[in-house]
Amino acid sequence: xxxxxxxxxxxxxVLPTAFCPGCYNGIVMNALFEAFRELNIMDLRKFVFVSGxxxxxxIPSPYIKADSLHTLHGRAIAVAxxxxxxxxxxxxxxxxxxxxIASIGGNHLIHAARRNMDLIVVMINxxxxxMTRGQAAxxxxxxxxxxxxxxGNPEYPLDIVSILVNTNANxxxxxxxxxxxxxxxxxxxxxxSINRGLRFIEVYAPCVTYVVRREGKSPGQKLRELxxxxxxxxxxxxxxxxxxxxxxxxxxxxxxxxxxxxxxxxNYARKAMER
Amino acid sequence: MGVTRLxxxxxxxxxxxxxxxxxxFYAGYPITPSSEIMHLMAKELPRIGGVFIQAEDELAAIxxxxxxxxxxxxxxxxxxxxxxSLMQEGLGYAVMTETPLVLVDVMRAGPxxxxxxxxxxxxxxPARWGRHGDQYIPxxxxxxxxxxxxxxxxxxxxxxxxxxxxxVLTDEFIGHGREVVFRRTDIELIERRKPKxxxxxxxxxxxxxxxxxxxxxxEGFYVMVTGSTHKPMGYRDVHSFETHYKLVIRLKEKIxxxxxxxxxxxxxxxxxxxxxxxxxxxxxxxxxxxAWRKVNKDTVLIRLNTLWPLxxxxxxKLLANVSRVVVPELNLGQIIYDVMxxxxxxxxxxxxxxxxxxxPIYPSEIIEALKx
Lengths: 275, 372
Prior knowledge:
The complex is a heterodimer.
Chain A: H1 25-38, E1 47-51, H2 59-63, E2 67-70, H3 76-86, E3 91-97, H4 98-104, H5 106-115, E4 120-125, E5 128-129, E6 135-136, H6 160-165, E7 171-176, H7 180-192, E8 199-204, H8 208-212, H9 219-229, E9 230-232, H10 233-238, H11 241-244, E10 248-255, H12 261-274
Parallel strand pairs in A: 1-2, 1-3, 3-4, 4-8, 7-8, 9-10
Antiparallel strand pairs in A: 5-6, 7-10
Helix pairs in contact in A: 1-7, 4-5
Chain B: E1 3-9, H1 10-20, E2 25-28, H2 35-44, E3 51-54, H3 58-70, E4 75-79, H4 81-97, E5 101-109, E6 115-119, H5 124-129, E7 139-140, H6 145-162, E8 165-171, H7 172-176, E9 178-184, E10 224-226, H8 241-256, H9 259-262, E11 265-268, E12 276-280, H10 284-295, E13 299-304, E14 306-308, H11 312-318, E15 324-329, H12 336-340, E16 348-353, H13 363-371
Helix pairs in contact in B: 1-2, 1-6, 3-4, 10-13
């Protein structure tokens, strides 16, 4: 029997996954695994996956066959920083949700960006706290009804990409889960330059249970909708500001090649040893 | 066998103790009165191939230490009261994931910001019980800069052997007091044990008193580390009673079952003949010792070098014959409850409690409480 090629990277004994039927996490996983395969990375023993708490944090733990640290809510980037700085030979990837990375862990993200910490951070933005039943997150659109905003969200969402573009982070991209090829290519790009500063990828993937189904749509219908909703950043900027909120700008927003923390610290330590 | 004689503060002594124990990773956040630990670490670690990071907050600091420990480092952080509060969740994670690390808490007067530059001993209960859930962390309490050096080494040995976080409780008196400290080169160090193969459970052992072997990231163990309830191989099980109960009982037994290794105390005088006792720990021990020297005929002095786990049976034996116990503490009464739990109801237990302004407990106050 021919096996699905992604199974090479997964702990088969824990399947099926706990994700809801139609959950877009599977698409993100597949894009990542396909990127590994196309780069001819067949064994993940030098990779360490770090995640926090939330549905997308379950992607590496327990599903990916590699070392994984399933940490406290919000602290994945801090733990990953400890791993990476003590052993820079390890390729450290953080996978988490918008609640984990942008809300409770937002401070660590900003400071990892300031340090240009040599990590890949994948933030799957599902717009809500999916694991705890769909409460409002910092990415929830204004006016959206959730269990904690029963009369429509009075707050406005946070655009993490535009924040990170203005930091010392090397690489900032956003793709919708409908941009499968672009997402896979971005994974390939960051995996090829993994030891070069902070590489942040937001994947826009609305929660199928607490966003998509509440809209009365199926995951498939929503994917089709995203294909027109997610437009290249340039096109987005050409739109009248009033209509922009209907669209999600995607693309690679920043791709620089400044030295990351590991190299900066190495030079700093060399100075210390000379003293 | 080299011994170097140095004039060090307790905070500086902690750094040299850590480095001599093999510590090569430090992440911390500035806080009075512990900052000198951070300053000296920042100076020393990059020179010897170690990593020093100034974290964005205490939440990050403790979690960076956890990450470095799994990457194979002997790692530590230091803080003071407010920082300890912020690190509690991370400590709980370290308990659950059996991550060796050392936290030095240079106690200051609280609650909240309190008096940042003034000594106190108010963190005994937070160090023991500050985290949610059932969990146990060894807490040790040096009294002098020399002991700050020795106990930091001891803390790393406990952490490595039992795969546990360890809290070293000093205070501003010890941290900023400067004394002669002997730095040694003949230190016996305990190193963590690695699994022999991928099949050896990293989160289970037949004898709960022996810590399971700890994989190092990146060596092909494919370890799953999680703060959720997990089975010996690391797989999460957040539903069954058996898995959870077995895990927390083992984690408890790993600490309380090693009482003979962990519990250190000192006794001055004769517990069998004494009518009165003084029970103390940390910097107050020095006042208590001076008081005891003046009244030693009928009094026994007990110093708790380890605050957790506490050998209550032993304390009961030592206090079996006394009719009055004086418990001087630089707080409003914390270890006094351990004493109350260890004596009969008719024994008079008196606290000598004082905190704030950097005023110590004087020997005369202890003597007065013994006599009154």
